[in-house]
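Quick start: what a row looks like.
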Amino acid sequence: MRTSRRGSRTRRTAALGLALVLLLGGCGAEGDGAGDAATAVPAEAAATGLAADLEDLATEVPGELGVVLLDPEGAEVVARSADRPFTSASLYKLFVAHAVLDEADRGALGLSDVVPELGLTVEQSLDVMISWSDNASGAALGRWLGWKEVEAFAQEQGFTATTFDPGTGSQDVVAMSTTPADVAALLERLRRGDLLSDSSTALLLGFLEEQHLDYALSSGFSPDVDFAHKTGLLEDVSHDVGIVDIGGQEYVLAVLTDGWSGYEESTPWFGEAARTVEAYVREDTGAGPWTAAAP
């Protein structure tokens, strides 16, 4: 059923783009700006087709689907339920990492300092928290800085929908909510180097690039796609967010979902979502032939 649906999506997007090209084909001699309009509208049509494809995919999510895709200039390509709060699961660790590295940038702590409760340095704790999604490290770093302080810092930085409520979680599982828009904004600022110092930016991007949990979007991207990312997983929640690099062009992608009976149920869906987004990006950038990963 999914193979057939993907085919209909591709045909719909292609047909829409072709129709607009044919419609505008006679306008090329109308003035200096006509050629620009003729290329801009098909790109707009492709984004419209992607949005329609995501609506199809949303019907397969038991709960809600939230998506934000930003292009290499940081402009929004598509957004769906971007401001809807989701239980963040391990996405909260991105905001903790931001707060910790900001402290390091200001000289309030050192990367070689030992984190109470862990016996690991700050740098080691950040590494396992991001690249392995270690819960104990995330909880210990948050307690060390203070949850209220981490939340206040996130909101002062513009991530106003991001909240922490560690009192409702277990010892090492922190309850928190965030939105696709907040996560995408953090990643975009990180990608641009506007979030942290150069050294802290490189460090956090390196941890994202070393991500060891590849059960979600990574399962659908082609082998030549680089994806520096962070997953978030609870029994009924599955998220994957990161920076997609295809042919040297970087897109920020945040996909948040809930309502699942377990991550095993969500994995095939994420694979299809990745293939859908990759097809759009390759069309948008002219990045070359698309060799999809096996479903």
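That is the whole record. The mean pLDDT is 85. The domain at 64-285 is CATH 3.40.710.10 (Beta-lactamase).
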